[in-house]
Specification:
Strand content: under 5%
Largest sheet: none
Structural class: mainly alpha
Number of strands: 0
Shape: elongated
Length: 701
């Protein structure tokens, strides 16, 4: 039977390739090279043109020959791939070498560059030709054949050879020595006079239709020296072998637990949980290992089930205390659970217990520092991070936590340096890349942040945090189309609905800013489907519903919010506006009821309680209601109050109608004339009615 491959099959294969890629990256970071190689090869079988998979496969290659092969495959896919070019250069392989040349061992003797040898030959050839083509003074003499040499003839022959060949050899030696000297002394090149090319004009990129062009970085950069990194720290290299900090405490349960932890590190808690739970339940009676309890509790906490996580840890405490075993890791787990619940005092208490039993545990330092930052106690955070670094000077996450502290202290330059150190130790650390980009944005260098995030997303294309942050950076530099595209990638990348919320909220805010209210409403609605209690999303949906003409839904959302925040006058104003704008004059009873309900909200001193930016709106809407209720005199007072605070075309139009109702024809003509004049500049939807009314007034005697 012939099986036809369908479009759905292709989608499934693509999803499988992404899963293999993400699992392979996690295995590579955990130094499970064989497992990583198997997973990444599976990803490449399903998606042979995946640049990221080839890059990571090169990092876990068995030898340099295999590593060069992977990088060359990457260049076949994308000849401009900087990571592949850097990797080949780090291996001493020229991008232009053939595979045989790349595989051949490099000589330990410095070799002059090919262009220098070519230049030397070009200089030498004319000299050789002049020597070899010099006329022979004895060419016309006929020599008599002899049986043996004459006296002195051998010496003459040697002399003749010497004067011809020795100059050539001397020249070759001089050129070779000079080339070798230059190759070993790059500064020597700078001492020689060089031809300086005239600057070529930079081509201005043509904007892509539908996207806002990214501003080009300024060519002239001011050099700012960066602080040196302690040479005693281990240096991780993606191409020469990583120096990742090993897990502590070590796994006693072997490969099963290691694979489950890889899933945890790859945010696949639901997949890791069954293995961890089974491992805990099958522990030998006399086992004193806390690992299965701890990691199962972490998985449960990440999935939001903190009650079950605490029960697992308490079970472990009971068992290990009976065996007189060390329970420090379980107290660290409780600290993690309590921090997730927002109980920072209990979290700190458990973290202190953990460190008292085993000061080498790294996680309690992270939690104590994070809790102190959350409370605004920056000095306490700095102290605990310093204490942790004394125990673990090469712990990447402590350096990242220090960077977060410096961001909180509004010291983004220091945070950049902390990210640099973390990436020096582990160039695969995701949080370090994100910290670096966040520090760039805090400094105001949004273009640099975009570049760092693009590099990061090439290595980690499935990072929802990376895509969300790229959207933030694009939005701040003014590239709104590219920002929305990045937010959309974040939403489509994530498997966890809750992790989509930041990208959805940011995209909705951009839609609102661009007056795409229906799309903003849709995003806020999606967030509320994920978390119905998320207040910012309900506030956003109420406003987007109002702006997109869904007045009834806006009122419903505002009423729900007022149940939680009864003192929010800004929400009351929004409800009044929705009641007025959504009222249908054709249904007289409902129309008058809606106006009366809105007037009750806006009555008395209500406008004065509002923020100054909202007061003109309150006076304007009250004036509209009063005009409909034929209370033109009070309506005039309110519209004048609105105009005094903020002038607008509609308020002049409304004032003209009120003056018309009061039979103040001259004042009404002035207002409608004002609207007609400025209507040539702005698009007023009420302009035709203003002109009709003006013409009617002018026609009167």
């Amino acid at each position: 039977m012939i099986v036809t491959r369908t479009y759905e099959d292709g989608l499934v294969s693509q999803e499988q390739a992404i899963q293999f890629l993400q699992q392979g990256i996690a295995a590579a970071r955990a130094k499970q090279n064989e497992e990583a190689r198997r997973l990444l090869q599976n990803a490449i079988r399903l998606d042979p043109a995946n640049e990221t998979a080839w890059l990571w496969l090169s990092s876990v290659a068995r030898d340099n020959k295999e590593r060069v092969f992977c990088l060359r495959q990457l260049l076949q896919i994308n000849p401009q791939n900087e990571m592949a070019i850097k990797g080949l250069k780090a291996l001493g392989v020229s991008v232009g070498d053939t595979p045989e040349e790349a595989a051949a061992p490099r000589s330990a003797i410095p070799q002059p560059a090919a262009d220098r040898i070519t230049a030397a030959r070009a200089t030498l050839d004319p000299i050789i030709q002049r020597v070899l083509t010099r006329p022979d003074p004895y060419a016309d003499i006929r020599w008599v054949h002899k049986e043996r040499n004459r006296a002195g003839e051998r010496a003459a022959t040697l002399f003749n050879i010497t004067i011809r060949v020795v100059p050539i050899l001397v020249l070759l030696c001089i050129i070779g020595a000079a080339a070798a000297y230059i190759s070993q002394n790059p500064n020597a090149i700078a001492l020689a006079p060089t031809w300086t090319p005239s600057p070529t004009p930079t081509v201005t990129p043509t904007p892509t239709p539908g996207f806002t062009p990214t501003p080009s970085p300024t060519p002239a950069l001011t050099y700012t020296p960066t602080p040196p990194i302690d040479p005693a720290l281990p240096h991780g290299d993606l191409f020469a072998g990583m120096t990742i900090t090993p897990e502590y405490p070590r796994f006693e349960e072997g490969r099963i637990l290691e694979e489950a932890v890889i899933l945890l590190n790859n945010n696949r808690d639901s997949q890791a949980l069954p293995t961890l739970s089974a491992l805990r339940q099958t522990l030998l009676e006399g086992s004193t290992s806390a690992n299965p309890y701890y990691y199962e509790a972490v998985a449960l906490t990440d999935l939001g089930d903190t009650e079950r996580a605490e029960r697992v840890l308490q079970e472990g405490l009971t068992k290990l205390e009976d065996l007189n075993a060390n329970t420090s890791l379980l107290h660290a787990g409780l600290a993690y659970v309590y921090a997730a619940e927002g109980n920072l005092a209990a979290s700190n208490e458990e973290a202190d217990r953990a460190l008292a039993g085993d000061p080498r545990l790294p996680q309690p330092y992270y939690l104590l520092a994070q809790n102190a930052i959350t409370r605004g106690n920056y000095q306490a955070a700095a102290d605990v991070i310093q204490e942790g670094l004394e125990q673990h000077p090469a712990d990447v996450y402590l350096w990242i936590q220090l960077g977060k502290l410096n961001l909180a202290r509004q010291q983004p330059a220091e945070a950049q340096q902390n990210a640099r150190v973390a990436l020096y130790i582990d160039p695969t650390a995701e949080e370090a890349y994100l910290l670096q980009a966040e520090a760039d944005m805090a400094i105001g260098d949004y273009g640099l942040s975009v570049l760092h995030l693009q590099d990061f997303l090439f290595t980690y294309p499935g990072s929802i945090e990376g895509w969300t942050m790229l959207g933030d950076a694009r939005a701040r530099e003014g590239n709104f189309d590219l920002a929305i595209d990045a937010y959309s990638r974040a939403v489509n990348t994530s498997e966890k609905e809750r992790s989509q919320i930041p990208a959805l909220m940011s995209r909705a805010a951009l839609y609102n800013q661009r007056h795409q209210y229906a799309r903003a409403y849709s995003d806020f609605n999606t967030v509320l489907n994920i978390d119905n209690a998320y207040v910012p999303a309900r506030e956003g949906r109420a406003l987007a519903a109002y702006r997109s003409g869904r007045f009834g839904e806006a009122v419903e959302d505002v009423d729900l919010l007022l149940e939680q925040f009864p003192d929010r006058d800004d929400l009351r104003l929004l409800k009044a506006r929705a009641l007025v704008d959504g009222a249908n004059p054709r249904n007289e009873t409902a129309y008058q009821q809606a106006l009366e309900n809105a007037l009750q909200i806006l009555s008395g001193a209500f406008p004065g309680r509002l923020d100054s930016a909202l007061q003109p709106l309150a006076y304007e809407y009250r004036a509209r209601i009063l005009l409909e209720q034929e209370n033109a005199r009070n309506a005039l007072t309110d519209v004048d109050a609105a105009l005094t605070r903020q002038e607008s075309g509609y308020r002049h139009y409304l004032r003209g109608r009120i003056q018309e109702a009061l039979n103040n024809e001259d004042e009404a003509r002035k207002e409608f004339e004002w609207v007609r004049l400025w209507g040539q500049v702005f698009s007023y939807p009420f302009l035709p009615d203003a002109i009709t009314r003006l013409q009617a007034l002018q026609a009167q005697p």
